[in-house]
Amino acid sequence: MKIEVLGTGCYNCVKLETLIDEVLTQLGKTDVNVVRVDDEKRIRHYISQDEIPGLLIDGVLASTREIPARETLVEWLSGVSVPLTKKRHIVAFSAGRLFITAVASL
Fold first, then answer.
1. 69, 63 in Cβ contact below 8 A?
2. Is-cis flag, bond preceding 83, omega within 30?
3. Each residue's pLDDT tens digit, 44-68
């Protein structure tokens, strides 16, 4: 399992990392590595800066902007349930006009 916290080290990012560590310890999953992604370009690949903290579980965007409840994290990290993927509109600009080109699951 690969867990990534998208954020720059703000209070909520650190709080999310701590909660994830506590849940992993509770579940006895000591071999899982939690990585903070603080590179702004990589964060923007998934979310905008105003949506941090973001949480990726095995490459799937599980949450943004808020810290999931402990019970929710227990379900996600134990495999009881899977996070719903966030859907985003892919937009394109052409000749000063905005076009919505598709809806993608991240």
1. no
2. no
3. 999 998 899 999 999 889 999 999 9
CA angle 90, 91, 94 (to 5 degrees): 150
Structure tokens at 43: 């964060």
Find the length of the chain.
Answer: 106
Look up residue 1 and give its amino acid.
M
Neighbours of 13 (CB within 10 A): 21
Q: Scanning the structure block, which residue is given the tokens 């996600």? A: 76
Count the alpha carbons within 13 Å of 12 in the hemisphere toward its beta carbon.
Answer: 15
Task: Give this prediction's pTM.
Answer: 0.75
Token duo for residue 37: 């992604």
